[in-house]
Amino acid sequence: MPDLADLSEKKLLYLYHSAFFKLFHIPLDWVKPNNKTFTVCGKEHCHPLCACIMEHAAGARLCEALTAERIQECRKTRRALLTQCHAGLYDLLIPIFDEDDYLGCLCAGQFILRMPSTEEWTVIHRRLSFLAVPEEKLLAFYKNTPVFSEEQIEGLKELLFLIIGYICETYGKSKFLESASHSSKIATAEVYIQKHYTRKLTVGGIARSVGMSESYFLHEFSKQTGSSPIVYLNSYRIARAVELLRGSNLNISEAAFSCGFQSVSHFNRIFRRITGKTPGDFRIGSR
């Protein structure tokens, strides 16, 4: 059986990164159990500020120390973790386990939640003074950085969950992420959503399919997966829609209805909320 810890050497991860970067314009990295990060994207996809920092010994040490600290926290809690580096950029970390064995961490990031305030900018500028980069150039780095809303981050997390699920399935790993703590009913509900996402689903209907009351199901699903059933469902549908828009000749309306959306306007709104783009703009950019 292939060793998932050597995922950095697998072509599969490079393929996922290529699709991921086209969608979000941020790189997808793999961190091995020894905390060594393998940047599968190459310098052309790495954030220019990160590349600049890593060229300096002081910057590289700061990044390595922070990565080790955050990965340790992620590994200990077995939960997805949103982290901010000393340069003010954010990363989303997802740990992977095979039962009790820690296999590594999938990392996506180098984005911001908003432009830094005057006070925050002063702190960042001081932290990065060792770069000796003109303030105008440093500011330009941030102006060209992807900005993610809270909803987009939730969508990003769900897509990473799906990617890891596919990877683990491909390499024969039976458990991943937080699945060790998932109850069998919540895990069954996730499978139910993935199998029936093309239908008109409701929270009550999903809850009944696993024999739970709607209120208790909502509580447990959010507690164990980190998102609501509707966010999970919409993220899964958008992931499937992305595949259709990239790899089929279906028009936008057909892709929307094929993925379970009841109206094109709703599909457009959810697609843009999660990806930051309209379906039309995404299709143009992916071809």
Account of the protein in words:
By secondary structure, the protein is α+β, with helices and mostly antiparallel strands. It folds into two domains: 4-149, Beta-Lactamase; 182-285, Arc Repressor Mutant, subunit A, CATH 1.10.10.60. Helices cover 55% and strands 11% of the residues. It has 13 helices and five strands. The chain has helices spanning 11-24, 48-54, 57-77, 118-127, 135-143, 150-170, 184-196, 203-209, 214-225, 229-247, 252-258, 264-275, 279-285, and strands at residues 28-31, 37-39, 81-84, 90-98, 101-111. A five-stranded antiparallel β-sheet has the order 2-1-5-4-3, with helices on both faces. Strand 3 and strand 4 form a beta hairpin. Helix 6 (150-170) crosses helix 10 (229-247). The chain is globular. Residues 174-183 have low confidence and may be disordered.
What's the structural blueprint in terms of helices and strands?
Blueprint: H1 11-24, E1 28-31, E2 37-39, H2 48-54, H3 57-77, E3 81-84, E4 90-98, E5 101-111, H4 118-127, H5 135-143, H6 150-170, H7 184-196, H8 203-209, H9 214-225, H10 229-247, H11 252-258, H12 264-275, H13 279-285
Antiparallel strand pairs: 1-2, 1-5, 3-4, 4-5
Helix pairs in contact: 6-10
Give the strand content. 5-15%
Query: How many DSSP-defined strands?
Result: 5
- What is the C-alpha radius of gyration, as a whole number of Å? 20 Å
Global geometry: globular
Count of DSSP helices?
Answer: 13
**How far apart lie the N and C ends?**
35 Å
Extract low-pLDDT stretches: 174-183
**Order of adjacent strands in the largest pleated sheet:** 2-1-5-4-3
Assign a percent range to the helix content: 55-70%
| Mean of pLDDT | 80
The CATH topology of the largest domain, please?
A: Beta-Lactamase
Total number of distinct structural domains: 2
Structural class: alpha+beta
The quaternary organization reads as: single chain
N to C succession of SSEs: HEEHHEEEHHHHHHHHHH
CATH architectural category of the largest domain: 2-Layer Sandwich
Largest beta-sheet characterization:
5 strands, antiparallel
CATH class annotation of the largest domain = Alpha Beta
